[in-house]
Amino acid sequence: MRGGKFKEWDGGGRVPAVVYWERSESNYKNLSSQVTGFVDIVPTVKEIIGDSNILKRAYDGISIFPVLKGDTKCIDRDFYLGCGAVVNKDYKFIKKDGNPKLNLTEDFLVDYQTDPYERKNASMNNEQILKRLYQVIEKYDTIMPLVPEIPYGKGQKGGEGSERMESNALIILNISFVYSMIASVIQNEVKNFFSLNMQREGILLYALYDG
């Protein structure tokens, strides 16, 4: 796979997802190429345990329960990777000015049907697809986060010493705060079903799309 960590190529974020459900009504043993990620955990578990409460906040995630139980092989969806990139089962689009680490000089479209290793830019032959995925990215890029973001790349360049230490400290603080916010949201939105119903159902979820 092309790329590495902190890059929007598959080598930077594509990992297997494993869901183990000990007490399911039937033995679901399915393999799928479903595009999924951590944002799908809450909607999926809500459907599994039959929680019909409407979430107070809009979620990017979807329930992949139909895929887990074999009702469908794949749900067609656009998954936002951040840094001006979006992927679905057929294509990946990366804006040239999204992630400076990629050093792109033009927008890049991957056609997975003909180029699974992300080597060729298919932008010229797929203008309508390019336009639609660009609009998907624009929609997500206008969303303001609950927790202020540290500017991308801050602390990665420049001198040593106090400036870098201060930047690293801010990043650690920001990550800790984000995780505490996530825990709070989960607790408030789904009323502790992680600690109660997931334990009852015997569900374990492992590494999803690690963008």
UniProtKB/TrEMBL annotation:
It comes from the Bacteria. One of its GO terms (molecular function) is arylsulfatase activity. It comes from Bacteroides faecichinchillae. SUPFAM superfamilies: Alkaline phosphatase-like. This is Sulfatase. Gene3D superfamilies: Alkaline Phosphatase, subunit A (3.40.720.10). Belongs to the sulfatase family.
